[in-house]
Known about the structure:
By secondary structure, the protein is α+β, with helices and mostly antiparallel strands.
Amino acid sequence: MVLNTLRNLRAGRQARTSLAHLPADRPRPADGELLLETVGLTKSYAGADGELPVLSGIDLRVRAGEVVALLGKSGSGKSTLLRCLAGLLPVSSGTVAYRGTPLTGANPGTAMVFQTFALLPWLTVQQNVELGLEAKGVPAAERADAAVQAIDLIGLDGFESAYPKELSGGMRQRVGFARALVVEPDVLMMDEPFSALDVLTAENLRGELMELWESGRFPTRAIVLVTHNIEEAVLMADRIVVLGARPYGTIREVFEVGLDRPRDRDSAAFDELIDRVYRTMTGRQKEGRVPGRHEPVELEKRTPGNTPLPSASVDGLSGLAEMVLHRGGRCDLADLADDLGLAVDDLLPQVDALDLLGFTSLSGDDLLLTPVGTEFASADVQGSKKIFAAAVRRAPLVGLITNSLRSNAEGTLRAGFFRDLLAHHFTAEQVTRQLDTATDWGRYAELYSYDAEPEEYHLDENGDIGEPDDPDDPDEIRPPTAASAPR
């Protein structure tokens, strides 16, 4: 129905007026015109030691007529960058400019579509769509007409008086698109807009959006899309900006897509680009960047700050290792994801975890089990625990917790001690995720236990914790003041 609506819109309404009137002093940008630019953008949040950098040295340009995808794993700062571009977050240093003018507040040329729909439940579909126009002071009759056109454009004609609770997830996200498009922004900002939808709904909405973009009647001149999905980025974008997160969010690589639309998923060029982007996202970063500097600096050793734990459970990484083993110890990860009905991005945390523990390595597009990884994947429960316990010493946060407990006379420490240490490097939400993963890994390895009620870690005296400490091991993590840390 919606596809027919779009075709009718293109065929029979070419002379119809725009959704909203552009101000006279803001002419519609021509293709290639520079709309957004960041120079040396750095964004930091308050941490225990002062400023905690999330983005560092970001230089980016967005021009009229292009779709730019910001691609990266969780924690790479892509959503933070999007909000800086929209003027919703102030930068810590560097500049963000809209059409040559540095931002001092909200960007007047952008509108945002959020992952969680962000509709007001007490307002109807039409009232939700009108919100942006009302904020701009557009008269009631004019904004009502524009809202109806926007609702029609995204395929929800007939639902103007419905409330969000009456709509499916896909329909609610359509309302989010209509609300953003009705103000005719120069740049449409989308923060993982399809990730909260089921696979079929997301695919349908994604296709309709790109069909509108290609029709020439899309009421915006550029799109900036945040995603963690490689295939989504290749399907939609003209340019893919890959962000890395070790130790700070930086631009790792930029890919020019150069494929005709509609994109053919079965073409060799499509597969080759996905493989190239995948290799960039999964490759271990050998160097980091210091905030405010553009030259690379070598990371001397792994620490909890520069080597965060991937958000992967022991069951998840064990399951992936076993799948690779059943495929002869080597497999193309994209093929494995296809076999499982997943996006390759869904497996990246497990891939990172296996790599960190030394259980796998990457060769081109293939994931290979190392000898110890093969032993881990083929061992029984007790055998895998012993192998895991020895390997998990490579994970800095697990090593920090274990060695801190050993250094404490009673082998007990409150979780707050580790939260304080991690707060020097991560946001509060990231600290929680790091400790959740470290707790899961340490428990499985029988290195330590965790009591949730008093929030305390306890050294597992009976656990097999692998080989003893090596004082010459550069990756051995030792607590700074654990012996006198408060219980």
